[in-house]
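Async update (no meeting this week)

Hi team, since we skipped the sync, here's where things stand on the single-chain job. The sequence we agreed to prioritize is pasted below, unchanged from the tracker. I ran it this morning and attached the output directly underneath so nobody has to dig for it. Comments welcome in thread, and please keep replies under the output.
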Amino acid sequence: MPKQANLIVGCIYKHPHMDNNVFNETYISPLLQKLSKEASKNIFLLGDFNIDLLKFETCPSACSFLDNLASNFLLPQILLPTRISPHSKTLIDNIFCNIPSSLTNTISANLSSTFSDHLPQILILPNFYPSIPNKCAKNLIRDWSNFDNEGFVQDFLNINWTNIIKPENGNVDMSLNNFLDNIDHLLDLHAPFKKLKKNQIKFSQKPWISQSLQNSIRIKNNIFSRFVKCKNPTLKKRLHREYKIHRHRLSTLLKKRLHQEHKIHRNRLSNLYYIMLY
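Output:
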């Protein structure tokens, strides 16, 4: 980070069958001893620790784990359960850091996401690290709605590729760059870029996700969100069953659609190779 102290980020996973005391003594204590020599640096330890911090008052190993980290000024940023099932709630995933929240206006949270049975966590330090603009993000996508396949092929064949690639120079890099530049120019003519709307940006890199699949994803996420927030045990079990059924169906449809998309791209590459060959 420019004009900031060096940053140390550690990603940790503890197998659920590993004894907590062994984990604390064999891994956490030696790690913290090494990190104590880096006190001037900003430290983040994050991951799936499989130690339920909600039980720190009743579980000695959880208390010891938390005390070890806190004594090195590494404080937990996640305070709510990160794994929720119809029968239990546990706080086993976390982000520990040694940056005082009073200096950073820290924002931390669990995200209601269906990536796994663990909720993902975020930690935002708005006043600590400067935002770095993404110069590559243009939110643009090619418009294929009026693409003329025959016109593209004809324009491709009309190009004198020998003069462009110049194989006699023996410079492969230059030849490839010239080839790609001309392909880009052709695509700009037949499939120009257009600016995406806000609701299109999310799926711009996943064109195989149709509108109907997007609707199914929203329904699945809505069911999961209701399950996480539900307080009624009977309703919670029903929502969990409904979510698992919907997730399985959606996963099957997504895999099938992705396979179809890969097949389309393979055919396009084969056609382009055929044109270049002949």
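Quick observations from my side:
The mean pLDDT is 83.
The beta strands are 7-13, 42-48, 75-76, 83-84, 89-90, 93-97, 107-110, 121-124, 140-142, 193-195.
Reply here if anything looks off.
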